[in-house]
Amino acid sequence: MRNFNGLEARGAALVTGASRGLGFALAGKLKERGFELILHGRDAEALSAAAEKLGAAYYAADLSAEGAAKALYERIKADGFTLSVLVNNAGLGASGEAWTVSEERDGELIAVNVCAATELSKLFLSDACGRGYGALLNVCSVGAFQPGPYTASYYASKAYLHSYTLAVREEAKKYGVTVCSLCPGPLDTEFFGRAGAKKPRGAMSAEKAAGYAVKKFSAGGKTIVPGFLNRLARVVPAPVRAAFVASVKRPG
Ligand SMILES: NC(=O)c1ccc[n+]([C@@H]2O[C@H](COP(=O)([O-])OP(=O)(O)OC[C@H]3O[C@@H](n4cnc5c(N)ncnc54)[C@H](OP(=O)(O)O)[C@@H]3O)[C@@H](O)[C@H]2O)c1
């Protein structure tokens, strides 16, 4: 599958973490491409408002809870939807010296960014590869490309998801299923505030990142990095990038 043309008449797109931020923007771009939309979020009020704006179905679930990802996927299938696209976007960050981050925060981060994204990828790929069509977009980060001092568990979670995504991309190819990794730089969303960090200056709008992402996703892009400077930064050696991250994120 090289583009969305063959998919539009054949199913729905599920975007997790679509109650706000990048997920909401990605959902809007998929709607423009003609997909029937299903939004997921945790905050039921924000989610229903987002779904109303986009004319989408919606399902609330806390993906950090044991078994929640599987239950969400099964509920959507039981309601008669066939998913041709899955965007694993739900995610959260944590900041500060690694040993000061609470066990609860790290647990939630790993449960959502790593475990739920893996579980949903597997359930989706099992169906899509069996059917012979589908496209999966996992939202990682430029933080996947090097260690992240003062945001260690978050960068590590995205490095895991990026590596996993590129591996299953190879496996799914022969079944006609496309798998892509989206690696944005800093975005102008509520993410940093919720992670107890300061939003960097020059953060890209979610709308702009989503427009670029969906264009590249529809063309089957492998590692999708919105923003020219973010793409250029990849030529800098990883240890230098990690030292830069430390200097920017070091508290005080
Ligand atoms: N912001 C950045 O600079 C940046 C950069 C690179 C990558 N990313 C990635 O982009 C994705 C979206 O981030 P964003 O910037 O749009 O952040 P955001 O505005 O904080 O939105 C995060 C979304 O994830 C959902 N979510 C968080 N914890 C959840 C949980 N336990 N169960 C279910 N849903 C949960 C939130 O749902 P509720 O609002 O309903 O709680 C919300 O819809 C994340 O994967 C993030 O890691 C962000």
Summarize the structure.
This protein has helices at 21-32, 44-54, 68-78, 103-131, 152-173, 191-194, 206-218, 228-232, 238-249; strands spanning 12-15, 36-41, 57-60, 83-88, 134-139, 177-182, 223-224. The chain is α/β, with parallel strands linked by helices and 252 residues long.
Care to describe what's here?
The chain is an alpha/beta fold. It has a single domain, classed as NAD(P)-binding Rossmann-like Domain (Rossmann fold, 3-Layer(aba) Sandwich). The model has no long low-confidence stretch (mean pLDDT 95). 44% of the residues are buried. A seven-stranded parallel sheet has the order 3-2-1-4-5-6-7, sandwiched between helices. The site of NADP nicotinamide-adenine-dinucleotide phosphate has 29 residues, from helix 1, helix 2, helix 4 and helix 6.
Summarize this structure as a short list of keywords or feature phrases.
alpha/beta; 252 residues; Rossmann fold; globular; binds NADP nicotinamide-adenine-dinucleotide phosphate
**Which CATH architecture would you pick?**
3-Layer(aba) Sandwich
DSSP E strands, number: 7
Percentage of residues in helical conformation: 40-55%
- Contiguous helical run count: 9
The CATH class turns out to be: Alpha Beta
Mean pLDDT: 95
Please state the CA-atom Rg, rounded to the nearest Å: 17 Å
Q: Which ligands occur here?
A: NADP nicotinamide-adenine-dinucleotide phosphate
Q: How many independent structural domains?
A: 1
Low-confidence stretches: none
Strand order of the largest sheet: 3-2-1-4-5-6-7
